[in-house]
Amino acid sequence: MSITAKQANLRSQRTSLWTIIRRNKASYLMIAPYFILFFFFTVLPVLMSILLSFTYYNMLEPPEFVGWANYVKLLLDDDIFLISLKNTMLFAVITGPVSYMLCLIFAWIINEFQPKMRAFLTLIFYAPSICGNAYMVWNLILTGDRYGYLNGLLMNLDIINEPILWMQTEKYIMPVLIVVQLWLSLGTGFLSFIAGLQTVDKGMYEAAAIDGVRNRWQELWYVTLPAMKPQLMFGAVMQITQSFAVADISTNLAGNPSVNYAGATIVTHLLDYGSTRLDMGYASAIATILFLLMVGTNKLVQRFLRRVGE
Amino acid sequence: MAYNAQLDTKRLPPKLQKKLRRQRILPGGKGKRKLNRSMAGNTLLFVLMGICGVFMVLPLVMIINNALKPLDELYQFPPRIFVRNPTLENFSDLFVLMNDSWVPFSRYILNTFIITGSGMVGHVIVASLAAYPLAKHHFPGKDLLFSMVVLAMMFSWTVTQIPQYAIISWLGINNTYLALILPAFSFSMGLYLMKQFMEQLPDSLMESARIQGANEWQIFWRIVMPNVKPAWLTLAIFQFQSMWGNTGGLFLRDEQLKPLQYALQQITAGGVARAGAAAAVTFIIAAVPVTFFLICQSSILETMTTSGMKD
User: What whole-number distance in Å separates Cα of residue A4 and Cα of residue A25?
Assistant: First the structure.
């Protein structure tokens, strides 16, 4: 190809790119403010963290390139990471789907009530997420001496003879954390389902009734759920990000590190390295692995959700 | 099978509409057709809601009771949930402490107002504005940009804080309100939420506006946003909560710039003697978002009874 032909080719490519941008000017202008900020405050920091995962960085000295060393140590030589991985998977497998169903069921039940009652019920069920004292409540319930509410109740009922140190006994830590996590589960997904149910077209219920939908359960599966598929997808992603990132509960109730690391999760492990031991490179490697886990799970779940109502 | 097809009853000939109404197939005739609801199902739901509700409302009950407890009841062992001799002492103690503060308390309130208000309103507008083209337009790069937003939510926020701090310093907005507000504009969840709701709007809605000569900006404000009101009210709740809980942390060093949340937490850090004031603080910290929540929720639930947009 001659030079002039190449230049002409290049120019036509450039003009076509330019015309594409011009043709969609309105779209690009509308997304610009968000994505400029998104690039600076989210994309760049994430990319920098991924780069940091290949370094040793203690936040005082400049990062030092160490190749795959962090990953090798993490996957082959870190017993606590394995414990935390196991616990995180437990949270993801148990609380993930159960929380999701709870959000959906409660949002749907609340939707059956009269409008005034609905706002009130929504507040009651959202209370753990909005009040900011959830851990205080549970610490009172789980206090290890006779004065803890749970110990007091069980002793009054003669189920146990002496108080149990709930959060200092290895075998109770994970079950208790799972219960608390479930109690806290009516959060983001729940409110988005409540909002999603408001946008379901009422006319569709009538059309469905003509077509032979008999009861509210059929209505839920054939009308409501398919109509709010976008919200179901959103709820699923939020659920994944929340159940894989469980950490606050564990640190607040069981402490970090917890007894024999029984309550360790990937994010508490990450916090341990990131804010206590100041090894940001290693912490970033943990974050990257966690990210890959979530992306994989998300792929699976989205494939499953596409089949709702079929 | 899913019911995507909508029954546009208004297009049917009036005679047929009347006939269908008489046969109770269409709503509006004598004896409105009821959706199928069984008594047993209703009772079951009531009982279930009652039992679960008691557990869920516990934090709310405790906050209110603790704020009204005199000091000796706060330290009573075994602790009781309900207050016996309610008093407003805790609040008066809190106001005394507030008046003693180095920076006038009104300044903290102003700071919170600016940070929470602009962080919330700005995010709702910026994220919705970006969500509309992603949901309804076709342009190159759209899918890539959207998947970036969803993926970003899965990267642990703890480790990105350090690079974020570096970028904020580099932009020269450290120790200003902007250091908290600008990152809040670009939170990922809001865009995702808005995009999901906008996707549900029928294309015909926007098409007819376009035919009448509306530009994209007008369509966004007059058609898209009013129709996704439940979504942006919900987003406002989330964003209010997260901005309200922000203490300024790393980014705000000047005492004059710090939000209310920070000042209140300083008061509670005073130990045993301030336990009463701390209980009042916990109450205030929860009461503000709860009030905001109730205002938004009741208008979410009003939208469908008033708007006749979707039929």
Answer: 31
DSSP for A77-111? S-HHHHHHHHHHHHHHHHHHHHHHHHHHHHHHHHH
**Which portions of chain A are predicted below pLDDT 50?**
1
Three-state SS for A65? strand
Nearest-neighbour CA in chain B from A241: distance (Å): 6
pTM value?
0.86
- d(CA B229, CA B206) in angstroms, rounded, equals 16
A160 dihedral zone (left: phi>0; alpha: psi -120 to 50; beta):
beta
Residues 290-309 in B contacting A (C-alpha not used; CB under 8 Å):
290, 293-294, 297-298, 300-305
The reported pLDDT for the residue numbered A204 is 80
Peptide bond into A62 cis (omega under 30): no
Give contacts of B309 with chain A, Cβ < 8 Å.
none
Structure tokens that stand for B265 in this block: 């937490």
In our burial notation (b when 16+ CB lie closer than 10 A, e otherwise), range B273-304 reads: ebbbbbbbbbbebbebbbebbeebbbebbebb
Q: Is B122 on the interface with A (CB under 8 A)?
A: no
Residues of chain A contacting B233 with CB distance shorter than 8 Å:
195
**pLDDT tens-digit readout, B97-137:** 888 877 888 899 899 999 999 999 999 999 999 999 999 99
Residue in chain A nearest B200 by alpha carbon: A230
For residues B149 and B143, what is the distance between their CA atoms, to the nearest angstrom? 10
**Under an 8 A CB cutoff, do A295 and B200 touch?**
no
Each residue's pLDDT tens digit, B148-181: 999 999 998 888 888 999 999 999 998 999 999 9
CB–CB contact B49 A37 (8 Å): no
- Please indicate whether, in this complex, the C-beta atoms of A222 and B63 are within 8 angstroms of each other: no
Query: pLDDT tens-digit profile of A169-209?
Result: 888 999 999 999 999 989 899 999 999 998 887 778 888 88
CB B284 within 8 A of CB B264: yes
DSSP 3-state percent helix, strand, coil across chain A (nearest 5): 75, 0, 25
For residue A122, list chain B residues with Cβ-Cβ distance below 8 A: 297
CB contact under 8 A, B164 and A41: yes
